[in-house]
Amino acid sequence: MKKIEHLGIAVENLEESNLLFEKLLGKAHYKIEEVASEHVMTSFFKVGPNKIELVASTNPDGPIAKFLEKKGEGIHHIAFEVKDIYKEMERLRNEGFRILNDKPKRGADNKLVCFVHPKSANGVLIELCQEIKEEKR
Ligand code: ZN
Fold first, then answer.
1. Each residue's pLDDT tens digit, 102-129
2. Which of 25, 34, 70, 92 is the most exposed place for a label (fewest CB within 10 A)?
3. Are 111 and 132 in contact (CB under 8 A)?
4. What angle do CA 110, 112, 116 make, to 5 degrees?
């Protein structure tokens, strides 16, 4: 793992939380992006070299809606940047971690992502992410 790429925070209302975090951090989010496959709307803030991702649900049956129901708003996941997500998934599987995805999928912010089940990581949902290098044309 290379570094913490971002912290994911589950929020009820993305617009309200965007304003709140804008006040908190002293600057506005730099992007809003829907990840339809995950039923979420995300917004990203930069804080020095670090990033915060706010995640709101777009579907009452989606994973974030369920998280909010169970635990309320708060830190939802820690995302680590990896060099080779396939290798890292393989390594973690061999170490006994439960990976939630068979293969990486496209996440927000131009990343391939996969998740490690919180039950196998002391209650913390872990996201692995790898930057997608776009083909130059
Ligand atoms: Zn994330």
1. 999 998 888 999 999 999 999 999 999 9
2. 70
3. yes
4. 135
